[in-house]
Write a structure and sequence with these properties.
This protein is an all-alpha fold. The chain folds into two domains: 14-102, no CATH class; 104-140, no CATH class. It contains nine helices and no strands. The chain has helices at residues 14-25, 32-35, 50-55, 59-62, 65-75, 78-87, 95-101, 107-115, 122-127. It is extended.
Length: 140
């Protein structure tokens, strides 16, 4: 390792802010930083991701589960479900498939919950989308 001291630069958000403004001006859509801005609107099927769907709702609706479920029932109609199914047909090759499934309880996850005996939180992490390696000696 080098013994030279690295000069300290003061922390500033100006560069980040300038970058976001320039990216919006140029209408960049394939930049991960842009996707996490409050005013970003996902196009196509991605807007049906549970995360994107909830984030697009006003805070009042986000806080009311019953109201949120009612809105989901009207939004996730037959056409939306068909579009999601078509876009995620490649399954393991589709990052969209993982986006659509994270945070949702599937039958296999429900079974894992019923037999889980470990308090380490790894099951909750996998439900929320984490990729945790499986070890043969792991007991649930």
């Amino acid at each position: 390792m080098s013994k030279k001291e690295v000069p300290h630069r003061p922390s500033t958000s100006a560069l980040y802010t300038d970058f976001i403004l320039e990216a919006k001006k140029r209408k960049l859509q394939h930049c991960e930083l842009i996707k996490y801005q409050d005013d970003f609107k996902h196009s196509n099927v991605m807007r049906y991701s549970l995360h994107c769907f909830i984030m697009d709702q006003p805070p009042k609706i986000q806080a009311d589960v019953d109201n949120l479920v009612d809105i989901m029932k009207t939004t996730f109609n037959g056409a939306a479900i068909s579009a999601i199914e078509e876009a995620t047909r490649m399954q393991y090759k589709s990052s969209l498939r993982y986006e659509m499934r994270y945070g949702r309880m599937t039958a296999s996850k429900a079974h894992e919950v019923s037999v889980c005996h470990t308090p380490d939180g790894s099951l909750v992490a996998t439900i929320m989308g984490a990729k945790i390696p499986y070890y043969c000696n792991e007991k649930r």
